[in-house]
Structures are given as C-alpha cells and as structure tokens.
Amino acid sequence: MLVKIFNIKFLVLVFCLTSSINVYADDSFFDDDVAFDETKSEFDDWSDDSDIFSDESTNNEKPFAWLDLEVNQKWGFNPGSNYNTSKERTELSFGTSGSVSDSGYGEVELKAIKYWPSDSNYSTEKSDLEVEKAFLQFSFDDWSTKLGRYTIGWGELEGGALDVINPSGGLTDPSMISQWLLSATRYSDNSDLSFFYNTNPRVSKSKLLIIKNDTYDEFGVRYGISSEGSDMAFYLGQLVPNDALTNLADGLAYATPYQLLGFGMNKAFEDYLLKFDVAYKHNLQHNRTGQFIKVDRIDWDLAFDIQKNDRQWLFSINSQYLLDYADDYLTPTLLGSVSAKRNSMNYVASVSDKFGDSDWKWGLSNVISSNNDLSLSSATLDWDINDHWQASFSGTYIDAKDNRAFAILDDYQRVNLEIKYQY
Hints:
Helix content: under 10%
Oligomer: single chain
Strand content: over 45%
Order of helices and strands: HHEEEEEEEEEEEEEEEEEEEEEE
Low-confidence stretches: 1-59
Structural class: mainly beta
Number of strands: 22
Number of helices: 2
Largest sheet: 18 strands, antiparallel, barrel
Mean pLDDT: 85
C-alpha cells in the first residue's frame, strides 16, 4: 500500500494541477473529506483569522516573501472494502496578503484541486479551481469595513445554533465555505455594532438534488457587549438556509429565507470557558404529508471548554425544538423519508493534546446526532515534521440506525493520510 501512496503522481502534482481546471461544484453531503475536529478553532465574531492587521516581521531570506504556497496530498481508504482507495487528490493553494494603504489590508487565496482516477469525485469532476479568500479591509477611526470573499462566524460555538452564515461541506466535512460579503463594524469602549450583507447567498446541496430557487438577499446585525471575564451579543437577521431541503411533494430542493433572533454569551473561569447560544428561527421550511410548510424552531447550544496546558476538552449539547409539530412531519432522505422528531438532540465530546514536548499531537472525538440516530467517532494523529512539512493520519467510523435519516451512512469507515508542504 505504501508503494501506491508514494507513487510518481506526487512528484508531478504541480504540473497536473495546471491542466483541465473546471468550475467548482458544491460538495456533496457524502463527500469523502473527513475533517471533524471541534477543538481546533473558533471563529471570531465577525471575521476570519486574518481580520486583524498584522505587525509580524517578514522573513527577508525567503524568496518571493509575498507568496504563501501550500501543497497538500490526500489519500483515503475504506477498511470495510479491502482498503480500496476512496480519495486520492492533490490540492495546491497559493495566496498573498499585505497593506493596501495606510488604513487598508487585503488577502487573496486560490485553491486548485486535482482528482486522480481512484478518487470518488473523479467520475463527476476531474479538477476544480476555487477562490478561497479575496477581500479588502479598511479601518477609519472607530469603523472597520470589509468587502470580498471570506467567512463570518456568529455565536459562541462553531457550527452551532447561531453560526449559520456560511455553509459547510457536510456532515463528514464541516469546514466553512467562504462567500462574497460586505460587512462593517462600529467599535465603542465596551461594545461593538456590526452588520453584514450578501446579495447572492451560497447553498450547499448534494449533486443528486435539483435545486429550484430564486435569488434572495441575506443580511444581519450583531450587537456585542464585553466585560471582564465574559462577553454577550444579540443577533437579528434574514438568512437563507445553508442546505437546500427537498420538497417531497415535487422532488425539487428549495432554500428560502427565514428570520432569526438570537443571543450568545461566554463566561471564563480560570482554565474553563462556558459558552451558550440560543436562536429563534421563524419560517423554516419543513415537510408534512402531502405539504411543504413553514414552521418555527428554537435552537440552543451549551458548551464547556477546558484548556490545561496543551490538553483541551470540549463537551457540548445542541437542541433543535419545533414549536409547531404534528405526527405526520417528515424528514427527507436519499431513499425517501422518515418521521421527524419534535426535539432533536446532538452531543459532542472531544479531547486533544501533544505527546509531551514532541512535535506529535493526537485527538479523539465522538458526535452523537439526532437522539442517537447516528454516532460518529474519529481519531487523529498529527506530526509537525519541520517548519515546512506536516503529516496527518486519521480514522473515522459511523454507526447509524436503520430506517432513520442517516441510515445510508451506517458502517461508514475511512482511514485518511495527508502530507502537507507549506512555503
């Protein structure tokens, strides 16, 4: 198997990426990208990690110091099918960042992906090219404005009740997908007022679905208050669902706007951080026998984050409670539909740490979804080889109940290997 992994394709990956680049297609719900790690990062309230003007010195000894380059080779194998290759792809990311003027800053990042014949995506797309990030940010006195393609994180918990602006790649690939956005923030002594606007919201959907949708605007307002040891914020917006929902009556998928009113807060206790989000969502689409209706729902999250030295624990609970409910409510699946529950509970437990002072890091996580309809367990092992090279090994297993929404994922098994070079 090692011979197959380190084959000649890896030596010519840069040349292969320059040919046959197609337009990006939305990730499938069942894509083989498995990257579930709730403990690694949290979104900033209104920006991605690059929103802050950096004073870090540039390494003048590095040729093309303005260029950030990353080459990532990924393999995925299915242990349940004689370790057949389900993923073999090469990713090339390159970008640049820097000051635009005395008050301006910008970033650009592009990603090209080459799918090899043994990759599960090869049958529908050989390659794609995506703008991962492209924005300009300007600051004037107490104001900051940002225009371009990036991600915005709402709420305290990543992927939680309020973190609903950017769609993700799916259950087995929860990384956020950037969108073209306009946002602005007004800062005061202990508070900030922010808004964002999106004229063409992006919707994730399976390649098997036909989406029928009009163009809707998406916008929102956030007011945050900071105090010693805690923060809180209030949210209001009109949002488009990140995932299109199949109308069982006509077989088409739709994503129409809903309204959100929310609140989030965190409280620090030495090495402990308590996080809470709650959101009232009005006019969500839902299926009922012979009907496609709109309902109201209350979502909430409660998370406990423990950080001691390099070890981090995360425990979280998420609830989705339908205020309107009837016994004939339905949830679509790839094979038809199943009955919907009034209250759907999800649980996450994860831990990560380093092996002493070494360059090795490990992580374990377990996700229980929809009142135990699905259980996803994963383990990761990362190695920082040196300043340029990294390697990662991970495994994922899913156990799902029969005749429920995730039944098709039962006995899902993946072992993944990733080798990354950063320049």
